[in-house]
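To whoever is on call:

I kicked off a structure prediction for a single chain this morning and the downstream step that reads the tokens threw a length-mismatch warning. I double-checked the sequence; it's 206 residues and nothing unusual in it as far as I can see. Pasting both halves so you can look.
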Amino acid sequence: MENRNDIHSQRSLSQQVLWIATVLFVVGIAILLLASISGCGSSTGAIDRLARKLGSKDEEERYEAAKELEEHAQSLVPHIAEISAGLSDSSDRVRYRCTKLLAKMEEAAAPAVSNLADVLTDDNEKTRYYAAKALSSLGIRAERALPQLIVATTDSNEKVRYYSIKAIGNVEVNTPEAVSALESAVNDDVERVAKAAASALKKITN
């Protein structure tokens, strides 16, 4: 009888331990979920605050905001208007940072095509470079920038030429101006630019 009672007691204790472990597990999961939700809200709030700073009257504040937003490049679609506006900023530093930010956003930067096209002639070659790079990732959606991209195939900076040529190839629209620009670029002194031109020419003429 005592053995049976001991066995029963052991089973009861095991069940209690299992029940406690289950409860603790569920509570732990709930805490993690709440922390995750809270973290997302906090992150969204921080992004909103930084995006608003892009409209600040202080140049340094606008610059730093654009720089910090690079860490959230894939979450900035709701703020594309503020970032695009940065490409018309009076400060070349801010224009550069906002253009770089759009390049990091990749396909999400599509609504900013016209703004990116405008800064392909910016005095800052880094800004031109990131504008061309951003446009090269947009495919047919960069078609509106085709005239500016064609001009950029003769840019003094080889990176700008390279990404402008890639962008033209990715647009895949055959126009006499595009074909002429690429045919000239095939003879570029920089090998990778010339190869990119040959590849782009093949894409738009086939």
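Update from on-call: the warning came from a stale cache, not from the record. Cleared it. Sanity check on the structure: The longest helix spans residues 2-53.
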